[in-house]
Amino acid sequence: MQATPRVAQALRLNLAHSFSTCARLQGASGLKINADRLWETLHETCKWGESHRYGEKTTETGMARLTLTDDDARVRRWLAAEVEKLGCTLSVDQMGNMFARQPGKLKSAKPMTAMGSHLDTQPRGGRYDGILGVMAALEVLRTMKDNGFSTNFDIGIVNWTNEEGARFPKSMCSSGVWAGAVPIQKAWNLQDIHNPDVKLRSELIRHGYLGELPCDATSGFRLGAHFELHIEQGPILTDSGRSIGIVQGAQGYRWLAFTIKGKDAHTGTTPLSARQDPLLAASRMIAASNDIATRHDALASTGILKVPSNASTNTIASEVTFTLDIRHPLDDVVQAVQKKCLEAFTRIAAQDGKGVTFDWTLETDSPAVRFDKGCIASVQEAADTLVGPNGSMPLTSGAGHDSVYTSKHCPTTMIFVPCKDGVSHHPTEYCSPEHCALGTQALLESVVHYDSFRLSQGTEV
Amino acid sequence: MQATPRVAQALRLNLAHSFSTCARLQGASGLKINADRLWETLHETCKWGESHRYGEKTTETGMARLTLTDDDARVRRWLAAEVEKLGCTLSVDQMGNMFARQPGKLKSAKPMTAMGSHLDTQPRGGRYDGILGVMAALEVLRTMKDNGFSTNFDIGIVNWTNEEGARFPKSMCSSGVWAGAVPIQKAWNLQDIHNPDVKLRSELIRHGYLGELPCDATSGFRLGAHFELHIEQGPILTDSGRSIGIVQGAQGYRWLAFTIKGKDAHTGTTPLSARQDPLLAASRMIAASNDIATRHDALASTGILKVPSNASTNTIASEVTFTLDIRHPLDDVVQAVQKKCLEAFTRIAAQDGKGVTFDWTLETDSPAVRFDKGCIASVQEAADTLVGPNGSMPLTSGAGHDSVYTSKHCPTTMIFVPCKDGVSHHPTEYCSPEHCALGTQALLESVVHYDSFRLSQGTEV
To answer: Which positions fall inside the Peptidase M20 dimerisation domain (chains A, B) (predicted)?
Structure first.
């Protein structure tokens, strides 16, 4: 309904009819998700945490459902009740991760095929990031139950705790603990950013979400696969007129922090040749990093630049700090861009006046991730059936997701659907009912396809 | 004593002997200032306001003598007493400007030849900026009295109120009122930056410095000429091995404030081609402004750049603001640099991704000033006698001074002496005893020479 003209056209071309009534949401499974129920359920549960109204419609608000707040606890209790209605077994681990498990026909002890995402949001977040993935998973199970359909292997839902890291500052926090990348004591001790007396663990206890099950990929709740439906959070699908992104993996990225030191000086009395101007040098460095990234088809971005608070129009600052975020699907390219940037920065530091000095630290190093070929093939198959070969495209996730951590321990991939103008982490974040439904149908088709694939590999897979 | 090797060498070459004993401070006047008395008086009076100690010596502190504070009032009362001891008449105008007048031989009613500067400092200022000019003027009058020397026309001292604009935010505030460039009500209503209840006028009253005399170049205390000795506040004299700067005028300058608007976006999910990155654009603009200024032999400087306070490493900012300070001795060049910058900025705004928009405002427009040829000739004559033709150089003032305003109404020039490393507006600001003495002797020679020049023009001049 609010899709851009290009997307609307793409949908018409690929889907032959509007599927606002779900008439054409038909894949190989023979099942059809209920688009209206999905939309209503998603927005009904947004009453817990809705905030930042920007329009008159009921759905025209953002969300402020920070992890383990009262509103987050309310939606958790609601989800627990819903999955139990469906006949699922619910497990909660020591990080409050919620695992709902629906038995398959094989009654296999093998780990379930999971559909996971998160119900927490940024303080000025939207109604789709994470929420869509969990609500879609629920709709998939509801559709299966409506149709008396059972997968071969067990199937289920995961709600990962504190994905956003907005209240307790560690993104993908609990999938990180599950994957063994974040020590549980460190995660438990995370402090509420506004109240250091409140810890993540104390909030788990307060809401009754400190489970006994270890939060561990091998000794805790194991997963046979992890599929995550998510809004793209970027403009690529919209700009290319595609409606499904088949996520091949996650970009590698490195975050560097630079400090450029010069000397404060009067702008009127100091010749250019006598200056040591760190803001001029930083400006040239930022421009150079963009040029280098462009040549490597990579991303280089500066989000933060600081000059001292006593800066004035007629004083050259003595010191400037800035961040540099370098990304590419290949780690080698990330490294190459970093190397070229450091070489350029060294030249720039000596370039103007009497030169500046700089040093830098590596703040974050997140290597590239390749998702599982079998999972990707299942999503490709689902997309081909639903939107045809021109309706989908391979994408690499630019942002971090719980799936990056699950991919370390089980076959994983993600499905992206367009969000309006690529906007996320903002109240106006928007994914149309059509795209929510399409993504959910693709999720259903993918897990059904993957379930068959697992069977084809033998019941021991 | 703390002069750099190059300056020390220059002094040796030009002055034949060290003049730390003032043995060689001999110009055409036949008078010789007392360098020790000058140094001692200057630093003795810095007890009122000394702050920010940086070394062990008595003189190794900065100053925090903000205008019309108790310390400023103390040094004003001390100055009043000293000039009265010399036989001067003291006048105080409605802005608290202090005019000390010593009668000349002619008993002429013509306005006096003034030696002026200011006794107020920045909150983290030094012991020489402004203070040297007033103390040097006092030493000139003391030297004349010691020698029974009288000028033809009246001569005297001006202490201008609130030159720094650091407490009441208007630089060259009271010379500006005197020159008719700043309305007195506006100046009187200036608020203390830390306490809006305290106004400049209420502080004048509190200290007894709200005079009855109009603060006006024509209807108030008129000046026949204005000579100001000041530290250079830049590195040009030191770097060129000269010890006297003969100031030809003041640079024109324009202060522009730019706002660059883009769109916030995730650094990991937004391709470069889809971005509207205002920090990247601002960086390219700052770099371009420097390149343009270099080609025009002008100055272009950015002192302030701000990104929103919620900036993060992985978010492209939505808006960036920065300042641009363009300077050159010729207004035409200032205008040309501004024009070229705006043209370049327009190109840059469209250059990356989906482009950004920008607007700008002119915050300050200060046209170039040419000082008086007669005054300049007197300083040149003094310099040639004291340091020879290789010991001085013509300079253009890069900073604002009270002399810029006095030049609108009376023949004016300035004398610059080197300050260590070009540093000013900082506690470590330093002018050696030798340079303080040399500048003071040059001031004496200049006013005596100008006094003769006035006489040569007839007593009606």
So the answer is: 250-350
| C-alpha to C-alpha distance for A228 and A221, rounded to whole angstroms | 17
Residue pair B364/B253 in contact by the 8 Å Cβ criterion: yes
A255: chain B residues, CB-CB within 8 Å: 313-314
Count the neighbouring beta carbons within 10 Å of the beta carbon of residue A373: 11
Residues A101, A212, single domain; the answer is yes
Per the CB < 8 Å rule, is A316 touching B303?
yes
- Listed by number, the residues of chain B in 12-71 with a beta carbon closer than 8 Å to a beta carbon of chain A are none
- Cβ contacts below 8 Å, chain A against chain B, sum to 183
Give pLDDT tens digits for B256-290: 999 999 998 899 999 999 999 999 999 999 999 99
Same domain, yes or no: B78 and B27: yes
CA distance B300 to B34: 41
Our CA-based measurement puts residue B307 at a distance from the nearest CA of chain A, in whole angstroms, of 7
Measure CB to CB from residue B268 to each of A264, A302, A398 and give the nearest one. Answer: A398
- Residue B296 sits in which domain range? 252-366
Q: Do residues A229 and A417 make contact, with C-beta atoms less than 8 angstroms apart?
A: yes
Of A302, A49, A64, A42, the C-alpha closest to A164 is A64
Give the separation between CA B345 and CA B287, rounded to whole angstroms: 10
From its phi and psi, is residue A81 left (phi > 0), alpha (psi between -120 and 50) or beta? alpha
Check whether residue B358 and residue B291 sit in a common domain: yes
Is the Cβ pair A265, B422 closer than 8 Å? yes
Q: What is the mean pLDDT of residues A28-40?
A: 97
A395 close to B (CB below 8 A)? no
**Are residues B312 and A302, on separate chains, in Cβ contact within 8 Å?**
no
Are A192 and A245 in the same domain? yes
Torsion of CA A168, A171, A175, A179, to 10 degrees: -110
Amino acid, res. B115:
M
A25-29, A137-141, A249-253, B452-456: segment of lowest average pLDDT: A25-29
Tokens matching residue A259? 């400090």
DSSP B71: H
CATH number, position A291 = 3.30.70.360
Residue A412: strand pairing partners: A226
Cβ–Cβ < 8 Å for A323, A362: no
Total domains, chain B:
2
CA-based R_g, chain B, Å: 24
Q: Do B274 and A425 touch (CB under 8 A)?
A: no
For chain A, say whether B302 makes contact (Cβ under 8 Å): yes
User: Which tokens is A282 given?
Assistant: 């930083």
A303: closest CA of chain B, how far (Å): 5
Domain shared by B238 and B261, yes or no? no
Residue from B256, B279, B289, B301 whose CB has the most chain A CBs within 10 Å, to mutate: B301
Residues from chain B that touch A274, judged by Cβ atoms under 8 A, are: 234-236, 239, 422
- Is some CB atom of chain B closer than 8 A to the CB atom of A267? yes
In terms of domains, do B81 and B175 share one? yes
Please give the Cα distance from A365 to A367 (Å, whole number).
6
Helix B278-295 vs helix A278-295: crossing angle, to nearest 10: 120
Nearest chain B residue (CA) to A233: B269
* Cβ atoms < 10 Å from Cβ of A109: 8
Is B461 within the bounds of a domain? no
Last residue of a domain, one of A346, A366, A386: A366
pLDDT bucket at B215, cuts 50 / 70 / 90: very high
Residue B108 in 3-state DSSP?
A: coil
Distance CA A174, CA A184 (A): 8
pLDDT tens for each residue of A292-335: 999 999 999 999 999 988 788 888 999 999 999 999 999 999 99
Question: Looking at chain A, which residue has its C-alpha nearest residue B295?
Answer: A272
- Domain termination residue (choose one: B318, B348, B366): B366
Query: Do B279 and A270 make contact, defined as CB atoms within 8 angstroms?
Result: no
